[in-house]
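Can anyone check this?
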Amino acid sequence: MKTMKFFFAMACMLGLAASCFAQNADTNVSTKKTSGIQAARAAAARALKAPGQSSEEVPAVAATLTSGAFVFTITIDLHPGFPTSDKIYCSANAYTSESSAANYADFSADGYVQATVSGSTATCSITLKYGWLLATPTSDTVGLGVDVRSTYGSAGTIPWWDNESTWGSSLASVPASGSTTPVKVTTAI
């Protein structure tokens, strides 16, 4: 008897849950499925619209391709006694964001190379080519970053050490399309 009451109670709870879900179901949903990214973009567009404005009325922002290159020349002074067997690696990145009432986008370019060592100096050269769709490149700030790293051995083994140096800067706007922008960095490890 207790078992039957338990199953009856569970059936009632499942029936109530199903009716709650049915009340929330949208009967006008099309059968076309959208990806999570498409759904997120649609939700963002709805959230950004002005009060009383429909999603169809959100004005499109005219974006044009802004392209060019950042040429990083990185000079690294090595500390006295720096092990000659250590490999040194450099990474560089450039990034910007574009946001308006209708659009939001992040753009970046990244590069990674091994340094050339000569005596107590190492050098890296990294060319980052970019092509970003921007509506307001003259007011979009560009962040620039460099990371220099040298590791000897493997983590958890003896001997092991890690030397690292980071650098960052910014430009007030994206360079004119077609530009090659030199970026000179001097650092030490």
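Reply from J.R.: I decoded it. The longest strand covers residues 64-77.
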